[in-house]
Design a protein that fits this description.
This protein is α+β, with helices and mostly antiparallel strands. The chain has 23 helices and 30 strands.
Amino acid sequence: MRSPFKFLDAYTVQDKNEFFGRDNEVEALYSLTFKTNLLIVYGLSGTGKTSVIQCGLASRFDGPDWYPMFIRRNENLNNSIQAALRSALKSDAKEDLVANVSLLMRKTLRPVYLILDQFEELFILGSQEEQDKFKLSLRTLLDSGLNAKVILVLREEYIGQLHSFEQAIPELFDFRFRVEPMGIAKVQSVIQDSFDTFNIHLEEPKQDLLKFMTDQISDPKTGIALPYLQVYLDMLYRETYRKKYGKESAKETLPRLDITRQDIASLGRMSNVLEKFLTQQNAELTEVLKKEYPSFPTNGIQLVLDPFATDEGTKRPVNYVRKGELLTLDPEISKSMPNLPEGSLARAIELLELARILRVREDTIELAHDSLAKIVDQKRTDEQRQLQNIRRRLTNAFEEFQKTGLYLNDKQLASFDEYIPKLGLTEEQQKFIHDSETDITRQASEERNRQHQEQEAKQQKKLARTRGVLLTVALVFAAGAVLMFLKSQANLKEARKWNDALGKMSMESVARADTLRLQQDSIQNILTQVDQQLVRMDAVINGDGSNQKIEIQKVYVTLKSLMSNDTMSEKEIFEEYASVREFETRPTMLSESTEVEPTSEFKSGQDVNAWARILMRKPGELLQAKWFGPDGKIIGSPVYGNSKVIKNGSKTDTVFSVISRFDMPGTYEVKLYNGAGREIDSRQFSVTDEKPSGVTVAEGNFKIVNSVIDKKPGREMSKFRAGSTVYYWARIHCPLENDFIVVQIEMPDGNKWEKKHGINLNTGTGYLVWNAKGFSLAGPYKARILNSSGVEIAAKEFVME
């Protein structure tokens, strides 16, 4: 005996005698179709949108009153619409959409209804080019004057995506209908009506059993989803039927079936009925497939179902080709699937179709319902999710490369590297990866050469200057010491001789220091030798040593020889001065020993603490920190300080910490320098505004302009010619999902024109809204933005002359 319940299939006009609970909605929807040629039907997933139209609305029309065409996107919405029209018109079909619709209306003598079901697939799976083409086609069809109706059916959470169409189709949101979820009382009524129709009887008291049944399948947060209800009733019917009649019968008539409280209780709570159903089917089908294909993996059913669900948990139709018993999915999809035993894929899809989990059409396969797609998505492993994420990022990067010629950078390539063998890339994508690696190698080589040349020039200049200063000081000091010694010996003539020689040598050292290029010794070596010579001069002055004149000559020769010595290398500088073990930005600490989590995100006006753990190589070294703004310029003066030694339990750390505060949002950077003036580390951090508590419009984000092109406002104006078109443009910050604003324009005669704009959650860059309106009456106008409570949040005035 077949179950009389629909399971996950939508109701059609053939089911009109079994479709209950939607009379009011159907009547309201029927009335709307006569008021507009463009209607949006939306609602939460599982509220029965498709059934309301395919069964409820369809049964409301008499046959000659309408010509419905139920169209799904499949691979491309524009192609699917044309394919449906070609199928209806046969050889008479044209290439033009309006011409085909006009021809079909003349042939059928009925208004054509293009019912685009699951329209959200255009945004989930479609490209921008596909969306733009459909937008243009819809505008053309609406402007044609034909009595053709377009009904867009989509899930409620995607209605915000339609706002990108509003500039081309300002009337888009004028007529829309929400399919509401069924309440508990309505669901109980539907169950009772269905039971009466299908010869099913509840034991008394019936109302108590209906309440018990709805309690079993109701979720405290979401209520009762109709797909869950249908699956529940289907399973309850089958289980009860087996208990009473044994195996299912082939009879077409429905025998009397009595359902007791015990029958309902034994089935149990079904808040996760579809998940339980899938788990049961997974086990049964896997057992069958393992017998036929011993190497079929244990998680094979999940792997087969995975391509049919998007990352957003919605259905994805997949094209296929069948040759005999061999079934081949779309090549792009097949590459994302692991290898399965030959023939097992076709067999698995056949079994999944029999289990009513997949629907196999002429050229596409898809899951029976979005609710199944959500469960498939929830059951994905971390590895599957990671592969999906990597595949999506790589696909986006490849598409961007095709537009701009930009290759992957080294960080992107590193994040993809370990997953590349599992991604099943096309030849073009593999070449893109290889060319990116080549480009990274080339850029790295060029950057190393540039940095080397730049660093070498900077190092040579600085070290030459340092050497010149050191030698000058040493020579001047030596000259003074020699003069003092010779004066003490009353040998003035000899003193002048040595003083002149050392003075000349000092000037030569300064002149030559700027031209030195090839040095061999380090700065430390020079300092050590200078120090030795100063000690030697102390000994000369104090009268130590056997031959003072020879000692002075040694000082003279040694200092002169240092003029050709090299300076300290980059490595040696960092070995001599402080370096960083750990550097991070964090909120202000209560004490230096308090453990605080690092962060790179701060609110405006919040203290930013740049904290470093330092490896010190000599005490008392002065460290320096610099703050850089979003424009890359230094903020204020550099901050100097010494490191501090603190105890943290049994550990002793040397730390350096500076604090600053920033009011303007943006990306900032702090850099740390050691005592040699060398940058030793840096960190970037962001500063953001506080999120608004309600819908807001920032200063300057509401404009009256002469045009809006590609979402960008034209020139702001306050005067227009009477009869011309006036545009308004606003960037809205909204902290709530599915909020709205109203743009109201008060005219000189006191009348008001209003336009409602739905907006999504957006507290960052803001959500863009705009529209255009022509005004023929001369005089002053005032444009206001009102929030959903009717409170004015922005206003502009303009004049029509």
